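Good day; I would like, with your permission, to put a structural problem before you. What I wish to show you is a protein chain and, alongside it, a tokenised description of its three-dimensional fold. Here, with my thanks, is the record as I have it:
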Amino acid sequence: MSHNEQQDSAHKPVKRKEMSRRQFLSYTLGGATAFMAGGVVLPMLRFAVDPILVKKEEGGFVKVIEESKVTTEPQQIGFKVHQVDGWYESDPKMEAYIAKGEDGKVFALSPVCKHLGCTIGWSGEEAPNEYHCPCHGARYTKDGKNLKVAPKPLDEYQVKIENGWVYLGPLEANTRV
């Protein structure tokens, strides 16, 4: 570039880039469309995510058996628990083995084997005075301690006794063994 050309380009006024009417209209309509789409999509998104945002209630206790009917021999007791899973409500049937320990306190064990999740039974021919899993031969003591095959003891229900009734709460790790 010669010296004269540099001087000419240096003295030219700076040309500003202005927004055309068409660009202005495009931006305005695009913004309005995005705002209206957000107004439609956000309530649907809130509806879809709402169950995740709701605080979970503490596991409630369920009335299962009269305290006077509980013996030192484990009894298999069935009961229902009300569950809310998102928008789906159900009352699945649960089971527990309930007995009195040597200390006289009532305890309840889950009938689900800790090996592979099969349902255990109490005191059969294979294992007198023990819990026995028919699937793979796991065995547990009356207190739920694992004796054979299973890696952990049986889970235990939280137990509460009020007005002569036994109430069962959520499952927890076995505290008896």
Observations:
- The two ends are 93 Å apart (CA to CA).
